[in-house]
Amino acid sequence: MRVLVNFERCRSNGICADLAPEIFEVRSDGYLYLLKEDLSGNDISLAADAVNSCPTQALSLLDP
Ligand code: SF4
């Protein structure tokens, strides 16, 4: 499973990073960084929570 970020939609509010800090990180430059792109195991459910919680629908999961 792969997580995708639409950076044009992201507002860097860090909700995804709070839910899944091993996958998402908002750095001091104010931008969101993806720490892992290809997900497995528990990371998939953490990323799914982040996808559902993102207020700007900037995240999506893709089953390649
Ligand atoms: S929750 Fe959405 S808007 Fe907020 S930092 Fe993550 S991707 Fe960006």
Summarize the structure in words.
A hairpin with a 5-residue loop joins strand 2 and strand 3 (32-34). This protein has one domain (2-62): Alpha-Beta Plaits (2-Layer Sandwich), CATH 3.30.70.20. The chain is α+β, with helices and mostly antiparallel strands and 64 residues long. It has helices spanning 15-19, 42-53; strands at residues 2-5, 24-26, 32-34, 59-62. Helix content is 27%, strand content 22%. The chain is globular, with a radius of gyration of 10 Å. It has a two-stranded antiparallel ribbon with strand order 1-4. It has a two-stranded antiparallel ribbon with strand order 2-3. The structure holds iron/sulfur cluster (SF4).
Task: Name the ligand types.
Answer: iron/sulfur cluster
> According to CATH, what is the topology?
Alpha-Beta Plaits
Q: Let me know the average pLDDT.
A: 97
- Provide the low-confidence segments as ranges: none
Beta percentage is 15-25%
- Total helices: the number is 2
Strand order of the largest sheet: 1-4
Fraction of residues in helix: 25-40%
Secondary structure class reads alpha+beta
Compile the SSE list and pairings:
Blueprint: E1 2-5, H1 15-19, E2 24-26, E3 32-34, H2 42-53, E4 59-62
Antiparallel strand pairs: 1-4, 2-3
Bound molecules: iron/sulfur cluster.
Iron/sulfur cluster binds at residues 5, 10-16, 24, 26, 32, 54, 56, 58-59.
Descriptive terms for the model:
64 residues, alpha+beta, binds iron/sulfur cluster, 2 helices, two-stranded antiparallel ribbon, globular
